[in-house]
Predict the structure of Methionine ABC transporter ATP-binding protein.
Amino acid sequence: MPIVSLTNVSKTYPSRSHGEPEVVAVDDVTLDIDQGDVYGIIGYSGAGKSTLVRLINALEPATSGTITVDGVDLTTLGERELRRVRGGIGMIFQQFNLFSSRTVRSNVAYPLTLAGWSKPDIEARVTELLSFVGLSDKAKAYPEQLSGGQKQRVGIARALATKPAILLADEATSALDPQTTHEVLDLLKRVNEEQGVTIVVITHEMDVIQTIATKVAVMENGRVIERGDVFDVFSAPQNPASQRFVGTVVKGVPSPSELAVLRERHRGRLVTFSFRDGDSSQAQVFLDLAAAGLDFELVYGGINDIRGRAFGHLTLAIRGDSSAIDRALTTIGERVDVTVIAAEEAR
């Protein structure tokens, strides 16, 4: 059974002024998140992804549909029962949301105090968590004395304090530099792998999904327009919006303007080879072209790796006898996708 299940869920808000239509933030979303997943939900600003998070952690009621979290249907519960459900869901935020007047230790202890833990148990749990996130030496520091990455580590420790089964990360790395983002994502991987916490990552950054997520849902205008394993969505996106997102981190077939530049700069037939896990390797393609007596150079594209599975697109400028090129492409095309994007040589 999924740990989070949404069935035909919609969330609408009243119009802001007379005569305007109501705002549909989430539109008939059906989505299952399995225990142990790192599930990415991605979309441009206004896509509805942050509203979806607020529905999962019961901060907003759904207008219609059902939401089940850890076996409990949220749509049937009163506020007291919803508070108990929220206790099993941790949350980290883009702007950290730490108490500036409390030390690191006190920030992490805060949810435990609210939950009624004893002082010895709070002390032991906070010590354990600060060690886990690598901040044991910052226990007495205040948030203003920390870097952005350290603040987010405190946020993660605080979110894990009550041992939640689910962790929601809403744009948790958007305020961080690339190196710090990498460190925080590595920590979230450890949270998932070592503590067994299911993580839902809300982001507009495709490279975050590529780095950490196992599954992904793409949202646009309140709807989920594509979902699946990250590798499948990245290597063969079906929806135009998904293709735009993937294009931010994966170079595919050159656009018409890029092709025009390539034709000016490179002689030969321009051919794109598309690789997917299990296909012939790029090295084998190069060997086949060389064995056919052809000259070639890599002019566009790259190969990506997601959890040990490779995919990508390489565009080559191939020079040599035209019939030899035809024969080589026919042979290679039996193993990988081949797209001739410019048959004539640049002048």
Notes: The first strand starts at residue 4 and ends at 13. The chain has a mean pLDDT of 91. Residues 178-195 form the longest helix (18 residues). DSSP finds twelve helices and 14 strands in the chain.
